[in-house]
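Practice problem 4.
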C-alpha cells in the first residue's frame, strides 16, 4: 500500500519508537509515586516537557500534556472561557471552518452555559477577513479561537495579524496548530497568541499524546477532575511512553522545518 493521507495521521518515526521502547519494556512506575520507579518516570516526563518547551521557545511550566489535539482544544476553550467569564464578559468568537474539536466545544458551552458565540465566515480562499474579525470583537469578548492551518484546505490564517487585534482589545486568542506544528514554524512568541494546541500523531509521533501551551501567568480551569497532575490543569496519570515519543518526533519534525 502507498499511504498518502499524512494530514489524517502519520506513521511512527524511528526516533519516537526508540524513545518509547525503554518505557514500554522496563520503566513502568507511576510518575506521581514517591518511590524510585515513580521518580524515574517523573524525570522522563519532566525532560520531555523541557524539550517541548525548547522547541516552542517557551518556559516548561506553560506546556500541559494531554491525550491529543481534541482534548487540548477542549481544555483551552472550556478552561479559559469558564475561568475568565465575568459579568458582561461572556462572548466567544471562532470561525465556521474550524475543526469540530473547536466548533463543538464552543457550541456546547454556548448552548449549555449561556455563552454568546459568533462564528465568522471565510472568503473564497478560506481566509478570515481581519476587518470582519476586528468588527466581531466587542467589550464582552473574552476568547477567540482561529486555527493556524486548516485541516481540510491547508490554508494558513494570518494569526499574527489577528493576535495583534486581540491584544489591542484585551481578548485571549487560542490557535489550533494541530495541522501546523512540525510543518511550519509555530513559535507562540512570534504568533502573539495566548494558547496553542497540537498532537503527536500529526508529526510522526504516537497516537494518544498531545499538548497545550498556555501563556505564562494565564489562569485556566481544569475541565476534568480526579487529581493534581500537570500542575492541577489536567488530571490523570500521564502516558510517559507516548509523551517521550512525542518529544522525540517533535524534535525531528521541527528540525526539518528549520
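Answer key:
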Amino acid at each position: 500500500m502507498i499511504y498518502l493521507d499524512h494530514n489524517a495521521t502519520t506513521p511512527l518515526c524511528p526516533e519516537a519508537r526508540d524513545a518509547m521502547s525503554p518505557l514500554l519494556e522496563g520503566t513502568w512506575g507511576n510518575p506521581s509515586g514517591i518511590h524510585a520507579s515513580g521518580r524515574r518516570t517523573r524525570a522522563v516526563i519532566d525532560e520531555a516537557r523541557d524539550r517541548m518547551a525548547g522547541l516552542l521557545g517557551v518556559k516548561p511550566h506553560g506546556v500541559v500534556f494531554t491525550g491529543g489535539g481534541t482534548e487540548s482544544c477542549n481544555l483551552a476553550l472550556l478552561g479559559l472561557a469558564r475561568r475568565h467569564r465575568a459579568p458582561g464578559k461572556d462572548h466567544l468568537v471562532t470561525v465556521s471552518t474550524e475543526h469540530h474539536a473547536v466548533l463543538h466545544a464552543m457550541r456546547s458551552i454556548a448552548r449549555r452555559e449561556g455563552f454568546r458565540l459568533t462564528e465568522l465566515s471565510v472568503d473564497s480562499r478560506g481566509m478570515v477577513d481581519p476587518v470582519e474579525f476586528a468588527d466581531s470583537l466587542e467589550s464582552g469578548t473574552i476568547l477567540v479561537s482561529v486555527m493556524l492551518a486548516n485541516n481540510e484546505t491547508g490554508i494558513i490564517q494570518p494569526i499574527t495579524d489577528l493576535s495583534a487585534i486581540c491584544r489591542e482589545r484585551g481578548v485571549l486568542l487560542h490557535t489550533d496548530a494541530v495541522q501546523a506544528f512540525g510543518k511550519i514554524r509555530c513559535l507562540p512568541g512570534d504568533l502573539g497568541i495566548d494558547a496553542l494546541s497540537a498532537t503527536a500523531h500529526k508529526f510522526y509521533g504516537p497516537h494518544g499524546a498531545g499538548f497545550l501551551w498556555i501563556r505564562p501567568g494565564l489562569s485556566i480551569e481544569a475541565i476534568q477532575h480526579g487529581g493534581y497532575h500537570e500542575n492541577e490543569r489536567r488530571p490523570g496519570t500521564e502516558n510517559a511512553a507516548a509523551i517521550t515519543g512525542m518529544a522525540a518526533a517533535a524534535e525531528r519534525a521541527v528540525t526539518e522545518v528549520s
